[in-house]
């Protein structure tokens, strides 16, 4: 995927990292349960667990106990994770424009925006 290649060329982690960091920064208190991250992204549970391990090792997220039941854990975005998401966005946004936006006329761009908004409301 061209966007993945642009992120890699800029020295950033894969797009999946951006997706997780974005969902965490959007979440209340910057934290979600792993199943909530799975629901909000296209990442499968087994891939997500390994991804969170790597992100935690890099200091972008941390795991916290879920105090309500003591069994589960929260995944919380760190300040380093928020900063990484913001830096990745600069490359991601220009890559979206170059690889996708520049290829659509206004009518198709509006249709795509409407479809994405509908999908967002259903998730």
Automatic annotation (TrEMBL):
<keyword id="KW-0805">Transcription regulation</keyword>
<dbReference type="GO" id="GO:0003677">
    <property type="term" value="F:DNA binding"/>
</dbReference>
<dbReference type="Pfam" id="PF12802">
    <property type="entry name" value="MarR_2"/>
</dbReference>
<dbReference type="GO" id="GO:0003700">
    <property type="term" value="F:DNA-binding transcription factor activity"/>
</dbReference>
<dbReference type="GO" id="GO:0006950">
    <property type="term" value="P:response to stress"/>
</dbReference>
<feature type="domain" description="HTH marR-type">
    <location>
        <begin position="1"/>
        <end position="121"/>
    </location>
</feature>
<dbReference type="InterPro" id="IPR036390">
    <property type="entry name" value="WH_DNA-bd_sf"/>
</dbReference>
<keyword id="KW-0804">Transcription</keyword>
<dbReference type="InterPro" id="IPR023187">
    <property type="entry name" value="Tscrpt_reg_MarR-type_CS"/>
</dbReference>
<dbReference type="InterPro" id="IPR000835">
    <property type="entry name" value="HTH_MarR-typ"/>
</dbReference>
<dbReference type="InterPro" id="IPR039422">
    <property type="entry name" value="MarR/SlyA-like"/>
</dbReference>
<keyword id="KW-0238">DNA-binding</keyword>
<protein>
    <submittedName>
        <fullName>DNA-binding MarR family transcriptional regulator</fullName>
    </submittedName>
</protein>
<dbReference type="InterPro" id="IPR036388">
    <property type="entry name" value="WH-like_DNA-bd_sf"/>
</dbReference>
């Amino acid at each position: 995927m061209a966007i993945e290649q642009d992120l890699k060329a800029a020295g950033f982690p894969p797009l999946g990292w951006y997706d997780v960091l974005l969902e965490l920064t959007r979440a209340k208190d910057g934290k979600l349960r792993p199943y909530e991250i799975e629901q909000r992204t296209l990442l499968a549970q087994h891939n997500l667990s390994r991804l969170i391990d790597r992100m935690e090792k890099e200091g972008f997220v941390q795991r916290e106990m879920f105090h309500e039941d003591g069994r589960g854990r929260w995944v919380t975005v760190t300040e380093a994770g928020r900063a990484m998401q913001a830096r990745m966005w600069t490359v991601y946004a220009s890559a979206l424009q170059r690889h996708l936006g520049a290829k659509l006329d206004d009518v198709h761009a509006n249709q795509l925006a409407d479809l994405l908004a509908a999908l967002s409301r259903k998730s």
